[in-house]
Design goal:
InterPro entries: Metallo-B-lactamas (IPR001279), RibonucZ/Hydroxyglut_hydro (IPR036866)
CATH superfamily of the largest domain: Ribonuclease Z/Hydroxyacylglutathione hydrolase-like
CATH class of the largest domain: Alpha Beta
CATH topology of the largest domain: Metallo-beta-lactamase, Chain A
Number of domains: 2
Shape: globular
Order of helices and strands: HEHHEHEEEEEHEEHEHE
Organism: Furfurilactobacillus rossiae DSM 15814
Strand content: 15-25%
GO molecular function: 3'-tRNA processing endoribonuclease activity
Keywords: Zinc
Pfam families: Lactamase_B_2
Number of strands: 11
Radius of gyration: 17 Å
Largest sheet: 8 strands, mixed
Structural class: alpha/beta
Distance between the termini: 17 Å
Length: 215
């Protein structure tokens, strides 16, 4: 599982028992990406007999030592540091990282199934950056932090709809999933703004609970 913001476990329980997780990877430590980590730790602490593994590994960066240390609960969860400059192999997946533009240390992830070569890229929270163009190149599915409509002005710690569409087009991805959606406005308009820039060849969807996408 990637990130665990508020409501993550409630949604997860509809399709998978949280005690059956193999691991959790955190892109950064802002609360909207980690709010349910503590809830998950309590679950693993209290339900020891039903756990798939003795301890749940939680992967995070060590540039925030205090939050990284909190990932370890004796007998329940264990924090594992990932090196953003190296690849991480977890089961059938190879994961690489790319630093994003955000107020705290944040890392986009590129996850490739080694057998098939199918690739998912999640930008995590980020302003637009050329680095993400190269990092996302040729992805089967690109998930972009799209918190702003095209007309947004001011600080850009997230991307606009048109920036998301442009990134998807430049990276020549097959599918684009808009995530970290704004809480106001018409989300279909957000999608249309992204589609106008990305072009008709790229399939675009809005993130939602229990949204299954085959790549």
């Amino acid at each position: 599982m990637i990130d665990a913001g508020s409501g993550t476990l409630l949604a997860l329980q509809k399709v998978l028992n949280p005690l059956q997780l193999d691991g959790l990877l955190l892109t950064h430590y802002h609360h909207d990406h980690t709010a349910d980590v503590g809830v998950l730790q309590y679950e693993w602490q209290l339900q020891q007999g039903a756990r798939k593994h003795a301890v749940l590994p939680i992967y995070g960066n060590t540039e925030d030592p205090l939050n990284f240390a909190a990932l370890t609960w004796a007998g329940a969860t264990e924090g594992h540091a990932y090196d953003p400059q190296s690849s991480l192999v977890l089961g059938p997946f190879m994961i690489t990282f790319s630093r994003t533009v955000h107020p705290v240390p944040t890392f986009a992830v590129r996850i490739t199934e080694t057998k098939s070569g199918h690739t998912l890229v999640f930008t995590a929270d980020s302003a637009v950056t050329d680095t993400l163009n190269r990092f996302s190149k040729g992805a089967d599915l690109l998930m972009i932090d799209t918190n702003f409509y095209a007309n947004h002005t001011g600080k850009m710690w997230h991307m606009t709809s048109t920036q998301a569409g442009a990134l998807a087009k430049a990276a020549q991805v097959k599918q684009l999933l808009l995530t970290h959606l704004p809480q106001t406005g018409n989300l279909e308009s957000l999608k249309a703004e992204a589609q106008l820039v990305a072009g008709k060849k790229i399939q675009i969807n809005l993130a939602s609970d229990i949204n299954q996408i085959i790549i």
